[in-house]
Amino acid sequence: MAYISRKRLCISFVAGSLMLSAGGFAPVSAQEIPNDFSAIVRQKLPAVVAITTRQIIQDQTMLDDYLNPFDSRGPAQPQVREALGSGFVVSTEGYIVTNNHVVADSTEIRVVFSDKETSPARIVGRDPATDIAVLKVDPRPNMTATAWGDSDAMQPGAWTIAIGSPFGLGGTVTVGVLSARSRDIKAGPYDDFLQTDASINRGNSGGPLFNARGEVIGVNTAIVSPSGGSIGIGFAVPSRTAQSVVDQLISTGRIERGFIGVRLQEVTPSIAEALAISGSKGALVASVEPGSPAEKAGLQSGDVITRFNGKDVQNVHDLTLAAASQKPGSNATLTRNRGGNQQEVALTIGQRKDEEVQTGAVPSPEAGDQRLGMSLSPIPDEARQQLGLQPGTTGVFVQEVAPNSPAAENGLRPGDVIVSANNHNVTRPSDIQQEWTKSRQQKKPILFRIERQGQSLFVAVAVS
């Protein structure tokens, strides 16, 4: 949620007690506007869930404990923090959508349905850049699922309905209108929020925003407030973005975004005058990455990109969203202005190499579970010296290891740095997942080389 005071602007996300939080198709005609929304709520309420999470907080003292096990101070006690959010079912197979900030770094996740039944959930995938995550629970009999609507067809003034668990009050319904579209609240690089005045509060994070047909047109994510409570300014990730992210997470567990390879800046009136172009619309190319699609297409520093795939580019944000939404390997056209001359340029979209994050929480090794049981991340820069790493060492940092998991049973520990898997260097959590998948397919152990307190050793984890 975002909190605005007269002195400063602060945007943060809060889910329940964690200081992290939430906050159609063609427009419905007058003849279709209901006298009330009880029928829609009655139909959709079973598909909306409350989400409770537990997170073990590992502070710097805990990091010191497992890096220096003989420290005389003794072991620090882990702290458990609980949080609450909302979500909604998108498939009768048990897939549930919520916000990334609701479940990120959680060690235990439970879903509470409208009939008060609870179910353990695991993370299928998450995308911090758009604050979307997908959970999976075991399917229930006669499970109710929502349907996606068309957020692009929503116009300011259209009805919106939010359902969620603000302050733990499950099944809360609020109604308002769409206040605005394409809001950039500086929460991330792909901000394109719907704004609504339907009341959204702490605990609404991850819940659905419906249109008057009962279709999901947004995922409630943030609010602006001087006090922490709703003042009628809430934001939701539009279904156009959320559905694409969710589909990718369900199918692959990760996100692919388009990349053209330019660093951009806004066109100011003085820059436009200096470049001999009219107006200040477009995105100025400050530099071009060597070997990138942009360089191969002939783009140069000083070019101003004014159109992308037939749509006007008003500013840097427009181009960032447009390029990221393209499928890697697809063809695109853009219009550049160089010295006052317009020229159309064709290029092939590359794949953005955003920092990847682990796509699952530390899972309990339940029957049939084929996960390693580790929470992974890039190596923390501030911990390199304590970890005893040589300059230039690359790898993946083991944050947590689930008890009784394959990783734990074979000797992996929090604080280990995995340098290679199956003799292939690793730099991202997805590299390890890829090698683990190969090992399972070949029915052989996965071989890790790890760095532990300045020592190198090999660890083999057998496939169950």
UniProtKB/TrEMBL annotation:
Which protein are we looking at? Do family serine endopeptidase
Q: What does the record give as EC number?
A: 3.4.21.107
What NCBIfam families does its record include?
degP_htrA_DO
Q: Which organism is it from?
A: Mesorhizobium salmacidum
What is its EC class? hydrolase
Q: Which domain of life is it from?
A: Bacteria
What are the boundaries of the signal sequence? Answer: 1-26
- The keyword Repeat is annotated on this UniProt entry: yes
Domain annotation PDZ: ranges: 249-340, 359-426
Q: Name one Pfam family in it.
A: Trypsin_2
Q: Does the keyword Hydrolase apply?
A: yes
Keywords recorded for this protein, A-Z: Hydrolase, Protease, Repeat, Serine protease, Signal
InterPro entries referenced in this protein's UniProt entry, alphabetically? Chloro_Bact_Ser_Proteases, PDZ, PDZ_sf, Pept_S1C_Do, Peptidase_S1_PA, Peptidase_S1C
Gene3D superfamilies membership: 2.30.42.10, 2.40.10.120
Residue ranges for the region (Disordered) are 349-372
